[in-house]
Amino acid sequence: MKEILYSSTRGGERGLTASQAILRGLAADGGLFMPGEIPAFDFDLETLIGKSYQETAYAVMRLFLTDYTEEELKACIAGAYDAKFDTPEMAPLVKADGAYYLELFHGKTIAFKDMALSILPYLMTTAARKNGVTNKIEILTATSGDTGKAAMAGFADVPGTGIIVFFPKGGVSRFQELQMVTQKGENTAVVALHGNFDDAQTGVKEIFGDKAFNAMLAEHQIQLSSANSINIGRLVPQVVYYVWAYLKLRENGEIAEGEKINVCVPTGNFGNILAAYFAKHCGLPVDKLICASNDNNVLTDFFNTGVYDKNRDFMITTSPSMDILVSSNLERLLYLASGCDTAEDRVLMRLLKETGKYRIPQKMRDAMVDFRGGCAVQEEVAARIRDLYEKSGYVIDTHTGVASAVYEKYRKETGDETKTVIASTASPFKFSRAVMSAIQGDVSGLDDWEVIDLLSEKAGIPIPPAVEEIRTAEVRHRTECDPDKMEETVAKLLGI
User: What is the per-residue DSSP string for 84-115?
Assistant: First the structure.
């Protein structure tokens, strides 16, 4: 099997092994690590039909993580994908109203981040051993709602690690906030930022790029890494579940061998849909990648015009994990579309930083023909949640609602009836008030827990343990800060 090495999209670092790239998280030049090539499947997909998720994960991930031994990688997979998932299949595929919903929310934190984040601590601690790292690894992460909880749940009390999460105060759902501020673990810290997600994400990247600050950390035997999807160790596991979805369609007789499918993904930071793009280029029979945005439709405009422009109002919506105007993982697609031209990537990223916008040349647009952008505003999302429930009895969350609404628009506009997998990224219980408002109307007279109980009754499904445990959980994290105090706050939390 060919060795895959990783380099920065901006050209500053080259030739890192997978374990080194995972340890680093973000390149020193601010770029993101990318494989020297996207490896092709070296197996016949048909041979994986009926295999377990764990077996599928190993077949796919070993192609990217080539410096992990078979024993190491299988141990990481076994540790991550175990009884913490509340369904035997881990990621069930549910057919409703002409589409296939890939339920990625059956882990400990009832969001799709569990699928990729639950394995990251295992990949990272294995990487530390492989590379002789004795420093404490401090995970520094910005979250728009779900990554923070999933990362903390994964890294809580893992020896040799710590984690600090920044989330936008008032910019996540009440349930998401409670999930984070009640998180246990002596090595966990949560900070409510007086700003939006883009402020948090920019601040984290600046801390990674501050050489003096990182040198000070090194003196205290601490090194930073990331659990965001900017870490290639987050992105690779996400490739697996698109392969899994395809295999389930084959196993269930929904598609013929080699038949192409479409994938529709509710998109914020662009990692999830990029993983589907990786899967396609590995050899998965995928046609269109439908990038679904909410009211913050910067990606829709980008795919329609070739212009990325973040200079617009930041909208706080009922799908907060998608309330993002700077989609970090898009840089990886730009890099691929430019023919891996690091100079071109540096120019575009400089323009984004200095002016908030850039335009890509036609040759790069031509390289992105696999993608179709679409958006749905909150009223359309609520209407789609209600319509799907009335037609099928199936209940989806607000983020999945964005994707479902965008897919319905796409199908009507194009007439494309290709079988389509919609990434269902969170349990409806995570956004119960918005979901119940969509299905039933005004629920303002009910408290949060009454709404959750009502949702359970309407959906005909039990309340997940991850929800029940929040009812009586103690708030453990109360730190807040302004965006210009993030580095200072990190130092204080680390006691330096």
Answer: TSSSTTSS-EEEETTEEEEE---STTSBTHHH
Q: Is 495 helix (H, G, I), strand (E, B) or coil?
A: coil
Query: Could you please report the per-residue DSSP string of 316-355?
Result: P-S-GGG--SS-TTHHHHHHHHTTS-HHHHHHHHHHHHHH
d(CA 44, CA 56) in angstroms, rounded, equals 12
DSSP strand pairing (188-193 vs 479-481):
parallel
* Residue 263, H or E segment: strand 261-266
- Give the strand order in the sheet containing 286-293: 93-96, 99-103, 420-424, 261-266, 286-293, 371-375
The CATH class given to the 93-109+233-459 domain equals alpha beta
The 188-193 sheet, strands edge to edge: 222-225, 136-142, 161-168, 188-193, 479-481
- Give the separation between CA 217 and CA 488, rounded to whole angstroms: 12
Residues facing 480 on adjacent strands: 192
Distances (CA, A) of 451 to 109, 393, 424, 425: 19, 18, 21, 21
Catalytic residue among 2, 51, 74, 113: 113
**Full-prediction pTM beyond 0.85?**
yes
Residue with tokens 């246990």: 184
CA angle, corner 441, sides to 438 and 443, nearest 5? 105
* Catalytic site includes residue 136: no
Residue 259: the pLDDT is 98
Helix 342-355 and helix 330-337: axis angle, to 10°?
140
Which element (helix H / strand E) includes 357? Answer: strand 357-359
Rounded CA gap, 476 and 249, in Å? 43
- Encode pLDDT of 101-145 as tens digits: 999 999 988 999 889 889 999 999 999 999 999 999 999 999 987
Determine the Cα–Cα distance for residues 424 and 421; give it in Å rounded to an integer: 9
